[in-house]
Specification:
2 domains, single chain, 7 helices, 5-stranded mixed β-sheet, Glutaredoxin, 10 strands, alpha/beta
Amino acid sequence: MPRSSSGFTLIELLVVITLMCVLASILVPVFARAQEKARQASCISNAQQIFTATHIYVQDHEETYPDTATVWGALGLDPGVLLCPTAEDQQNGGPVHGRNDYCFSRTVAGKALGDIKAPELELLTADAAEKPAGGAPNILIVPGDIDFRHNDTFVGGFCDGHVEAQKEVPPYWMIEMTNLGQWKTEARESSYPVLIFLRDKSASPKAVEDMTTAIAKQYRGRVKTIAVDTATYPQVATDCGVDPTNPATGCPAYVLLRQGKVVGQPVAGTLTNDATLNAQIDKRRQDVLAMIKSVTGQ
């Protein structure tokens, strides 16, 4: 008479172990994302408290924002409010930027409340990068000062008081392309319309640079502006359908992208450095603004 066995065979054990490994591979990332979501909620709470403290400061100082030199001391925040759980965890419990994991926007600092024309679009604070590209710790100067540490998003606090996770830095600056990877991440994959400013940086007249910066500021929050040195990144000009060697299609040239594709006709053509230069630049400005309006309606 055969004996019954209540044990597992080797094959059955291997099957069970395999199933446990598969379940673990599925559940561990889910738990990690859930944990990060909780940390993000704490970070959003911090940003809301920073806004409240800033609002109180503004009301007490003739409706003027604190300046960059004194902002963090002037707000009088509890030290715990300045600590982001994710940033601290990335350093195994140690502080990342001393005792402050956030940055305050330089474009807002020192301004009167009434000078902020679109507070719902204007960043007040953001998650600070460990090594700020702008060179000033805890001050938001350029996009590289922001850390996308919450599941590839950052917590942004805006001047109207709303706080939300952002997948992309809102377009506030004319961004200078410093590596070809930006052509993909900042331009091709942008959720915003993107104005590409193509020029030979070493020979670009200051008046052209100033005019383009003014356009970038005019459309801040709506259109991202990226300046590209064609001598360094000729492939970008080619992708945009611009030939810098041809005076008729040469630089300074402006190309508008939407959802990664060129829309409309480039505004291009070499400028002549003579007495009519200012008039040429003004005409180029009008043509660029018309191009943007024809695509965005604004």
